[in-house]
Design brief:
Elements (H helix, E strand, L loop, with lengths): L20 H30 L4 H16 L4 H4 L5 H18 L6 H29 L5 H29 L4 H22 L20 H27 L5 H29 L1 H19 L5 H13 L5 H10 L5 H29 L1 H19 L26
Length: 410
């Protein structure tokens, strides 16, 4: 049965087939990765080889990149004048424009400016993506659905990394050419989404004001520590590959290509696994693994082992689905959109500070950066053990030293 062409938004469950909300979320994830993955692949090499950045400048640039994430709570005010789905489209378009322009401003200040533009689009999109996913996907299928969204995004990463890996040396591409092509691809997909998909209703009408609730404190704490952990990977692990081990553009692309394959294959399985074992167990596995990865980063001297650590580190990101489904289970449905913005802001408090501060630490001792990261992962592990086995509204936190109830028999 064809979907109505009425301008009234459709209930999410009224849409079936390829024009469903889940499919829309998956294609938006692909559109984001087509440009962001290419930008991320080239970013360190562009900074080092074209702009002669050191740890100091890369720290400043990465802090600038995180400022829009810190201000993500302002999305709730933008929603006073447009719907969440529309804001997601606008954000993706802004991301594409920022990436496309990057190579045409080959100065430190130019890179800082295009990074800011790209980042505004990226972080507003991520805020809307999280909010719409939690509203449109049923609780019992949310983790599996998010796994599929990550897998499609990973496939788009594979396309971007694969093209760069094959074409960079073969056609002697320039940074400006690749940035431009990647940004335009995202803009083309956004145009397709606007034409092909109807507007869907959000779930329960969302509050159009900031929401901070005491009972969400554990989610806020996990989110804050997740932002700190992410910076160790995104800023310093990648920089380690280029500065210490001399990875070239096509070699970084190959590393990212492996990450994309792992995400595409593992993310749906991880989502289903989280649905079976629960958020508490999943987060515990993630943080124990990260302690080992970060501690090993500190002392690694072999380029191949460093690359393997980078792949393992990236694989753990899919388990962050557990943090989102934990919130979905404890949240008032009307709090999802405003809390998504607040959560991104909390996530980026550390993200704005860490690149600059740790960039200075890096100049003295790169190993110290990763050892501090291992300590952060330990704090996250303690918080993860406070997540209830069966979280719900009214059962948001479990005492640290209590014995978790056994899972019900199936």
């Amino acid at each position: 049965m064809p979907i109505s062409t009425s301008t009234d938004p459709l209930p999410p469950r009224a849409a079936t087939g390829w024009r469903s909300p889940l499919m829309l979320l998956m294609i938006m994830a692909a559109a984001m990765q087509l440009s962001f993955a290419a930008w991320w692949n080239l970013m360190n090499n562009f900074a080092v080889h074209e702009l002669a950045f050191t740890g100091r400048e890369i720290g400043i640039q990465q802090s600038i990149r995180e400022i829009p994430g810190f201000l993500a709570f302002t999305a709730i005010y933008v929603l006073l004048v447009m719907r969440e789905q529309t804001l997601a489209y606008v954000s993706l378009a802004l991301l594409g424009v920022g990436v496309a322009a990057t190579g045409y401003f080959p100065t430190a200040w130019g890179f800082y400016l295009t990074t800011l533009v790209m980042s505004v689009g990226f972080h507003y999109y991520e805020t809307m993506n999280q909010s719409l996913s939690l509203q449109w996907l049923p609780k019992e299928k949310a983790a599996a659905g998010m796994g599929k969204i990550i897998a499609v995004g990973a496939f788009a990463q594979l396309v971007a990394y694969g093209l760069i890996f094959v074409a960079w040396k073969t056609f002697e591409l320039s940074f400006s050419t690749v940035f431009l092509f990647a940004g335009l691809l995202t803009l083309c997909v956004v145009g397709f989404l606007i034409i092909a998909f109807p507007q869907f209703r959000e779930g329960v009408p969302q509050r159009k004001s900031l929401v901070l609730r005491k009972r969400y404190w554990l989610y806020y704490a996990l989110t804050f520590m997740g932002g700190a952990r992410r910076q160790i990977f995104t800023v310093f692990a990648g920089f380690l590959m280029v500065e210490r081990f001399g990875y070239d553009v096509h070699e970084v692309a190959g590393l990212f290509l492996i990450n994309g394959v792992f995400s595409m294959i593992l993310a749906p399985k991880i989502g289903s696994w989280i649905g079976r074992v629960g958020e508490r167990t999943a987060l515990t596995v993630e943080y124990i693994g990260l302690i080992g990865v970060f501690a090993t980063y500190a002392f690694v001297t072999n380029a191949t082992l460093a690359g393997a650590l980078y792949v393992i580190d990236h694989a753990f990101f899919a388990i962050a689905i557990a943090m989102k489904t934990y919130f979905q289970k404890i949240a008032d449905p009307a709090d999802i959109a405003p809390t998504a913005g607040v959560a991104f802001t909390i996530n980026h408090i550390a993200a704005v500070v860490i690149p600059v501060v740790f960039g200075l630490v890096w100049l003295v001792s790169p190993a110290a950066v990763f050892l501090i990261g291992a300590g952060m992962a330990f704090v996250s592990l303690v918080l993860a053990r406070m997540v209830p086995r069966d979280p719900s509204d009214g059962h948001e936190v479990e005492p640290l030293f209590s014995r978790a109830a056994p899972a019900p028999a199936e």
